[in-house]
Design brief:
With 682 residues, this protein is an alpha/beta fold. 34% of the residues lie in helices and 18% in strands.
Length: 682
């Protein structure tokens, strides 16, 4: 067993060190499943490292009916692993062999969750019934309600705790240590956040044969975001260590609330709330949607369809499609500087006329009629159809029966991320990105496939490690000999950050943004800098993008990056971890922007969940600004995957053809022999 703890002196710091065969970074559903599966497979020299046990996206986010996507497990409708793989692969820019693995192991992952107590619904015959989700030709989806991923995390955590797997809480990883050629990972450098007040003794060195990286998506890249505020992500330091990323262009955006971050899909839209905007100070209230639709029916139908078609999709912007709603909200907030709200207390009106349900199209009217909800106000309809949706906001300090809900178009998920093999191993050997940090998805994906991918990927990584990577880690002294320069650079960076810290100690007091002659900024406060990064991403790399805007943003963030260590000013040593987070976010943001720039400059058009402005394109409505003129992508890029590697002097981009879905020999005797001869896990 590992977990040996020693203290060492290096470069003027006392390093606490640990050794394990495998360290899992992150405590979401994917991270816990990786640790649990490793233990079950016999690799018990495993530990979990987390910045905060309760901080991740899996535990703190959801939607109207958070979905788990898996093979059909009920009824007589035909389905197969191959059919499900085709549904995943059809989204474009996804490797077929990865799609096949996610389909093949979906039932195993789902039933493991059932076994440990996640209460997915089944009928009296034991069939786990499903429903149809977006980009899903079957009825493969299941849910336990808005907090599906939270219940998954809680049950998986119970398994880890029952097995006594160590969890090192409050350790923020700041470096992935590699060999000199950046061919394989060797360990981790972290900060003990509980000891930041003592910078000479707060660093932790971890030597490990394998790293399962379950840090979630790059949650801090956008201010307008559905990611929980507690979630940070750590994609940047993986890129710094040489891990290749893929499909970073493919983020997903949609309408969400701001005060409490939550997707506004499903019944939140189907009850037909009133959309209104105000000036920044709350004055000048207007129902702005009616300025853009030709009749009340098309307006209300578009709102209703946002429940089914929640993500922004440029294909649904024309002809008064549902994603026109996103564009109009974006225009009010980002271009006009106004605030937008959903009002559930009053019905929407049309040119001064009260709501008439006869305005609705057939689909909207039939749904509400079948739900016996053709009455009252939006809040009355929501109480009738989905009281838990109201309770959720009340539990988070917002009473929908009394107050409007402020919203915006927000970043919600990244379909791209770090590259992995069919065993979820990075190009950086012994390093396994799992969960959202892994970019297995393509341009479009069935709703709920992310939860399945996290369970499948973490189990696959555990299988490979238990079968192939069982050797002991380097001793801490040997790790420092192999990766000492990397450790030294991070310690020096920390010293540079602290050299500009205020003399007020470790408290969180605010500092004034200081400038030199001519207004040149000579110091950036930690909080101001992270807002500046996220504001830049909101403005230029959100759901509306342009070539000029991306170039401008990339130049700005490269300038910040080159000056970061000498210009960031801390309020005290307690902000050391946040300073390193800013570094991570800058590396990630630059790489994401470089990926988007390459896509646009290669002629890539509007696809997925973003619109690329094009001067010769078509606007959803003639009276909209030129920023919304666009051309849909012709699909040529969907046959390839964009790969990108970060370097301090620039990013290297290449495009590779998607690997097709494998058509392997299914003859049992042949597979059985290969399995007996240990030729499968390779």
């Amino acid at each position: 067993m590992g977990g040996r703890t020693v203290k060492m002196t290096f470069a003027g710091h006392t390093l606490e060190s640990y050794t394990y065969n495998t360290v899992v970074v992150g405590t979401g559903a994917a991270g816990f499943n990786a640790a649990d599966t490793l233990y079950n497979l016999g690799q018990q020299d495993v530990a979990i490292v987390t910045e905060g046990l309760n901080m991740g996206t899996s535990r703190n986010t959801g939607s109207d009916k958070q979905t788990y996507y898996k093979l059909t497990t009920s009824g007589g409708q035909p389905d197969s692993i191959w059919d499900m793989a085709q549904s995943l692969f059809a989204g474009g820019s996804m490797h077929g062999d990865v799609a096949l693995v996610e389909a093949a192991m979906s039932a195993q992952g789902f039933y493991n969750l059932v076994r440990i107590g996640v209460p997915f619904p089944h009928n009296k015959y034991g069939e786990y019934v499903g429903y149809k989700t977006d980009h899903d030709p079957r009825q493969r989806a299941s849910s336990i309600g808005p907090l599906t991923s939270r219940r998954m995390v809680e049950k998986l955590q119970q398994q880890v705790e029952m097995k006594g797997i160590p969890i090192h809480d409050s350790l923020q990883v700041i470096a992935i240590l590699t060999d000199q050629e950046q061919q394989r990972s060797l360990g981790l450098l972290a900060i003990n956040k509980r000891k930041q007040g003592d910078p000479e003794h707060c660093y932790v060195l971890i030597s490990c044969t394998n790293i399962v990286y379950a840090t979630g998506g790059p949650a801090g890249l956008y201010n307008r975001s559905v990611y929980p505020q507690s979630q940070n992500g750590a994609t940047g330091i993986a890129l710094e260590a040489g891990a290749t990323a893929q499909n970073l262009t493919e983020s997903q955006f949609g309408l969400a609330s701001l005060k409490f971050r939550w997707n506004l899909s499903g019944t939140y839209q189907q009850v037909l709330p009133r959309y209104m905007s105000t000036a920044a100070d709350g004055s000048d209230e207007r129902e702005f949607l009616q300025d853009w639709f030709e009749d009340p029916g098309s307006m209300l139908d578009a709102v209703f369809l946002k429940g089914y078609q929640w993500p922004f999709d440029p294909r649904k912007t024309m002809g008064y499609g549902s994603s026109l709603i996103d564009i109009l909200v974006y225009q009010e907030t980002m271009l006009r500087g106004r605030r937008v709200f959903l009002d559930f207390c009053q019905n929407p009106t049309w040119q001064g006329q009260e709501l008439d349900f006869a305005w609705l199209g057939e689909e909207s009217h039939t749904y509400l009629a079948n739900s016996k909800a053709l009455f009252g106000t939006p809040i009355a309809r929501l109480q009738h159809m989905n009281q838990p949706a109201i309770d959720l906001y009340r539990d988070n300090g917002i009473d929908l029966t009394r107050e409007p809900l402020e919203i915006a178009v927000c970043a919600q998920h990244n379909n791209g991320g770090l590259m992995g093999s069919i065993w979820w191993e990075s190009n950086l050997k012994h390093f396994f990105p799992v969960g959202e940090v892994n970019g297995s998805h393509g341009v479009y994906r069935p709703g709920g496939s992310a939860l399945n991918s996290g369970q499948v990927g973490s189990a696959r990584a555990a299988q490979f490690i238990a079968a192939r990577y069982t050797e002991a880690p380097l001793e801490p002294a040997a790790l420092l000999e192999a990766a000492g320069e990397q450790v030294r650079r991070k310690l020096d960076m920390g010293r540079q950050f602290l050299a500009r810290a205020s003399s007020g100690g470790s408290g969180p007091q605010q500092l004034r943004r200081s400038s030199g002659d001519g207004g040149e900024v000579t110091a950036w406060e930690v909080g101001d800098l992270r807002r500046r990064i996220a504001d830049t991403m909101d403005q230029y790399a959100g759901c509306i993008r342009s070539a000029d805007g991306i170039d401008r943003a990339l130049n700005e963030l490269w300038s910040l990056f080159k000056q970061l260590p000498i210009k960031m000013k801390l309020a005290g040593s307690a902000e050391l971890g946040r300073a390193f987070q800013n570094y991570d976010r800058l590396v990630a943001a630059i790489t994401y922007l470089a990926a988007i720039r390459d896509y646009i400059h290669r002629g890539g058009g509007s696809r997925g969940s973003y619109l690329v402005a094009h001067p010769d394109g078509e606007a959803p409505l003639a009276q909209l600004p030129d920023a919304f003129r666009h051309r849909l992508d012709d699909g040529a890029t969907s046959a390839n995957v964009q790969q990108i590697r970060f370097a301090a002097n620039g990013c290297d981009v290449q495009w590779v053809p998607v690997r097709p879905i494998p058509e392997e020999d299914q003859w049992f005797e042949e597979v059985w022999q290969a399995y007996r001869e240990d030729k499968i896990i390779r």
